[in-house]
Design brief:
Length: 271
């Protein structure tokens, strides 16, 4: 059964929306139609999507537009830093579209956003949810040298389904990126279920992530954004999510959140 989503609270999002519009920013909270938008805003957390809202890749489950991106907004680092300050956020997640059109895959811009947020908001913790940057070592080192409290990269799905759902990405490369991050920072990833994977495949992916040094994991239900996207093959029950959470802990993850409406940034400030 498809999970029911609570209607967003106007009081919880009105101030945030006005500031986001003031600075012409994008948030994953809105663009991905996240079901937890009110809850996160109430807790003083938000996820900003940088480098535009057009992605160079074409994942079959993602609601972000895939096309030729616009040039980077050089003022975006300062605008986001000011928005974080005005919203008095205690925890912020910075993520981005893939920018394979850029020579450094957008890593310098990503770094500049993090550093500007930290400069204007020294008490705000920053989690960086990054693309794979095509595994470019200079890009990865920029993220490691940044003031990110935590580095994250989402594996999304199992090895068998990865190429079907993420044709321009690599399961193996994602693991290599996470393994490199984990040598320097707290590292986190996310699995989406409902694509037709088996419990055995999910366990295999969990073990691959753990072996790569990932210590934190979120597991959530895939909800089809539109009829043109990949179909939902299975809706997991509350009991099945509990089984997956227990499985993850038994494998050795230090922090796990699993549930129907869990997304990669859900309770990011609590993990």
């Amino acid at each position: 059964m498809k999970p029911k989503v609570k209607a967003p609270s106007f009081e919880a999002i009105s101030k945030t929306l006005s500031i986001i519009e003031k600075y012409s920013l994008s948030t994953v909270c809105y663009s991905s139609k996240c079901p937890n938008i009110s809850e996160c805003f109430k807790r003083g957390t938000a996820t900003f999507m940088i480098m535009g809202n057009i992605c160079t890749r074409n994942c079959k489950f993602c609601n972000v537009t895939s096309a030729k991106p616009l040039p980077l907004d050089k003022n975006e680092p300062l605008k986001i830093a000011k928005a974080v300050k005005e919203l008095n956020l205690n925890y912020v997640v910075i993520t981005s579209v893939d920018r394979d059109d850029l020579s450094d895959y957008g890593s310098t811009h990503f770094y500049n956003v993090i550093e500007k947020i930290a400069a204007l908001n020294p008490n705000t913790k920053i989690e960086s949810l990054t693309p794979d940057f095509r595994g470019d070592i200079n890009a990865l080192n920029l993220m490691i040298s940044s003031k990110s409290y935590k580095l994250a990269h989402n594996i999304e799905t199992t090895k068998r389904l990865h190429k079907k759902l993420k044709p321009k990405s690599s399961y193996t490369l994602s693991l290599k990126v996470l393994e490199y991050y984990s040598k320097f920072k707290i590292t986190k990833s996310s699995i989406i279920v409902g694509f037709g994977e088996t419990f055995e495949e999910i366990e295999e992916t969990m073990r691959d992530l753990k072996n790569a040094g990932v210590s934190q994991l979120t597991i959530g239900q895939y909800l089809r954004p539109s009829p043109k996207h990949y179909p939902v093959k299975k809706y997991y029950s509350k009991e099945e999510f509990e089984l997956l959470e227990n499985m993850a802990y038994s494998i050795g993850f230090k922090a796990v959140v699993a549930g129907e409406l869990v997304r990669s940034s859900y309770f990011a400030d609590k993990l």
